[in-house]
Amino acid sequence: ACCIIATIDHFSGAPSLAKVTVALVALLCFINSYDGEFVFDDSEAIVNNKDLKPTTPLSNIWRNDFWGSNLSSNSSHKSYRPLTVLTFRLNYLLAGGLHPVGFHMLNIILHAVISALMIDVFAILIGGLSYDEKGSILNHAPKTSLLAALFFAAHPVHTESVAGIVGRADLLCALFFQLSFLTYCKAFNRDDRFSVQWVVVSLLLCAAAMLCKEQGITVLGVNAAFDVLLICNVNVYELSQSEMLRTGLPTRLALMGLGGLSMLYARWRIMGTGPPAFTEVDNPASFAENIFLRIVNYNYYYSLNAWLLLCPWWLCFDWSMGCVPLIKSATDWRMVWLLLLWCVLIGLINQALLSKAILTLAADQMKTLTLGLVLLVVPFLPACNVFFRVGFVIAERVLYLSSAGYCLLLAYSLGLCCCRWTKYRKLLCASVLALLCVYIARCALRSHQWRSEQSLFTSALPVCPLNAKVHYNVGKNLADRGNATAAVGYYREAVRLHPTYVHAMNNLGNILKERNELTEAEQLLSKAVSIQPDFAAAWMNLGIVQNSLQKFEEAEKSYWNAIRFRKKYPDCYYNLGRLYADQNRHVDALNAWRNATVLKPDHSLAWNNMVILLDNTGNLGQAEMIGREALRIIPNDHTIMFSLANVLGKLQKYKESEGFFLHALRINPNSASCHGNLAVLYHRWGKLELAKKHYELSLKLDPEAPGTRDNYNMLRRKLDQLKRQTP
Description:
This protein is an all-alpha fold and 727 residues long. Among the domains are: 1-47 and 98-275 and 308-448, no CATH class; 670-726, no CATH class. It is built from 32 helices and no strands. The chain has helices spanning 2-12, 15-30, 42-47, 82-95, 100-127, 142-154, 159-163, 168-186, 196-212, 219-231, 249-271, 291-310, 335-354, 363-377, 399-420, 425-449, 453-459, 468-480, 484-497, 502-514, 518-531, 536-548, 552-565, 570-582, 586-599, 604-616, 620-633, 638-650, 654-667, 672-685, 688-701, 708-725. The chain crosses the membrane at residues 108-131, 195-212, 219-237, 298-315, 335-359, 371-392, 398-417, 424-441.
């Protein structure tokens, strides 16, 4: 306790040292996530986002959403964050590809910078705005602002924003939010005048924050509250008095209002087709028919968000799909949390806004409390479901800015307690030290869980055991790592918890298909497409299963349904071609595979099947032409080289055939079939010793290779005859 008192006393007197300390604490909390993988939403926003690649025109980031989809598409989430995507692209260029270390390090550094800047923000909100003789802003609350910044730097609810790379949007938004606020403060000098230029710069920084994440526009509300309460020195209790009309305030509010409306209008125009369409799974409370239950559940979500700020122990990467069951009755015991939340809020609002200073708190304390509430509530407003429906139940990342208001209130309350209860000062300081240590430990543990999808998904099981998406993601991760048997159990649990979970049905059906449990796979996939008729992947997988069950007509219909719902579906054309080949509809098969290669020029399987089919039907010249065309597009594909080499051998172009076989073996030296067919080529060519060598290599790699042993025995007999004939 004495140590933390001395440390804060020492560092608070040295602003630069205080910022370095806060930044180091921020680094300490999250540094162990620096070598993490791309996890969860990183796959869509970064790994599969073409806007990051240098080959994609830079202008695309201004036309597409955060996930790389065109904003005019009905499937777009309308998350317009081009500046965030631009930083991802810079990471990609600097690292020379998708290497997660650089992405993670930038997130951690951004959090450290934001945490350090929070000292300046808190200093103004707590101690007010004043200047020294040189025109620099004075910090009248160095200890409290430092303590609040330490709480912010180490708050575990920030883990998703820092350790998850897609949290870059929240970090950049927070950085420009701070800069907009601090720039707005610069608009006021010591002569009670204000600078329109600095207000305009603040609006531009607000626009930049909004281009990182939509939440950035809320800085205008914080700026307005700061102006009214600290610059104009107005208490809400005195709003009717003339202080409210202080010279310049209407102008500044008009500028911010006009700027905010312009940004909202531009944002709406950019969205193109209107707001995004979310499903009941994303936000079940917003689909409740009863308006009373809708309001009740929204407020319950608010109480859970408040609890995450107060006790950030139970953290989860996803809170949807049954993780938070709906309140359906006024007798539900969880109603207590709503009442408690509003009792606390009303109490705070009463102290901050509606009580005369002489009765409760001093005027400065009331303003600080009010600004703390503003910083807590205003950044959260876009996520509160009041203005528009959001696509989540709870999202820890949206609390990144709101947590600053909570940290301010917490530090300020502790400061007041230390001043009033001096005999308990050491106990309070010891409690603060313990809380910071717990925060740091929890951050370290949670950021470690974010290092891989396996640890992230499994960490959610005890927090949200009723969340079908958690079980689905655990199962998918297991399946991706080759443990399909364990994955089946999690997929089944996901379907049990959410009986209309079509993605879980599709993945479970795929595993059952590979295990040859075709009847159940067909039932699951049929149910999936009946629930979601435009689910193209499920239609294709259903076609594959039906083909295996020799239900050829049904399989063909399923494939065409998949193509109808996804026009550019090369894999489906490939599987349709296989169906036609099984039915000896060779022309239809070739046309289907050709469509696959048109849609996806590097579709190796489609090219190879065309070569093989033409070879098997005796069209050797056409097979050669297709094989050479394929290798111009995919020059290092050893399977196409192998098939083309076979064709050239049959055309007695032995030298070219040999070259392709040897090239294929340099790429894949352990291919028994390639060694075996090269041996057949040498056998025909008359190079018997080379044939013998490659037959032996083929048999060594695969003793059961069909036909190879018979050919080898035939060659040995011929060699023996030649030896006997040699004098």
